[in-house]
Amino acid sequence: MHDQTKTIQIQYFALLREERGLTQETIKTDLATARQLFDELKTKHHFSLGQERLNLAVNEEFQPWDTLLKDGDAVVFIPPVAGG
Question: Could you give the number of structural domains in the chain?
Answer without folding.
Answer: 1
